[in-house]
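Need tokens for this chain, all 439 residues.
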Amino acid sequence: MTTTDTITITPPRGMRDLLPAQVALRDWASSIILQNYGLFGFTRIETPVMEHIHLLRGGEGGENLQLIYEVLKRGEKLESELKKDELSRNDLSDLGLRFDLTVPLVRYYSANENSLPKPLKAIQIGSVFRAEAPQKGRLRQFTQCDIDIIGTKSEFAEIELIQATTNALQALGFNSFAIHINDRRFLTALATHCGFAPERQSLVFNTLDKLDKIGMSKIREELQSEQHSPEAIDKMMQFLQTYVQAQEKGQTSFEEITSLLPKDLAGDFMESLQKIIGAVSSIAGDKFTIRFDPSLVRGMGYYTGAIFEIKYPGYSGSIAGGGRYDKMVGKFSKRDDVPACGFSIGFERVMDILSEKGFVPPFSAKKIAFIYDPDRDDSITVVQAANSLRDGQNVVSLQARKKDMKKQLDQILLQGFSEYVVFKGDPNNLEIKQLAAQK
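Here are the structure tokens for all 439 residues:
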């Protein structure tokens, strides 16, 4: 290292260090989420942060396929590839960092199916990685928090996923949120009814998903720029106009919205949606709402049935999302009849909202700073005295006494301690004082 070299001490762009208070909030939230998921019979599993690159590329992850952090081959394998006369980027990597938790889950299920309960009700909380341009609300490394049910065909899977997620969010202090629900089969039926070519319908869906962000006129402009059939565009816009007007009039119930739809868009999936909405509504009370949203798309290409998102008032985007992906297990194994459905809490967004509100996680145990004099106090006596306080299930941290006691107490307060003891040599005479009074 030369004298002109500088050491970069900041994390890579799109990644971040977390301070103790931030980690404490995340740990508390994770424990609350896990506790609530556990009430519904979900159990935690773990998968590696790296997967085989061909599995990641074949997972129908939508735009995320362009954001994979690829891992170079190593040693002789890499040297062998570099000697080729013709070399493509795909030749150089054999692994990649996971961009979500669904692809790893399906690979995990396919590899361990014979050892897993049926249905599998799995929890995953872990880091995922996307090589995208960092900006507010978009990180290159972030935490996802998923629950999935593999092996249940009926809408009870969706109902239970939604109920477990809403319970967890309410336990975190979120209320008055709205669940938006749709079905990919409805979207396909709608696009076909309007006359969009089957091979171009994914483009239509991507545009339709922006309705609440860019509005009707921009939707038409984008569809026209993609050179879809003018007749198909007109028919889609007529439907969207009718839907938006119904929203403005407050006609947002399932029955009111579906009454606007052409009869040929009806199917068994609409009955299933009605059951999901009815069941969830019956437990919602005045704490949250659920409604059919025919403009909801969700970007992942692997969704095959019901899809849903949760939106929180005052914040753009969603704080949770998921859906059914019945065909995905078949891409990883010979089984093409394994139903699957999942729901993911947007952990980072939830943490941001709690932080913006100044939320401090509750802590039942007392947190005591045990201040001792390193030049005077006997180490054995100090340790035994501190342990006597821990016997009461208190959190006790040893802190060497500094010259500026006021400044030290301010620092201890910032560390989250509520009380302190200044040790005076007698383990039987420990005076616990309130720390907040020293501010």
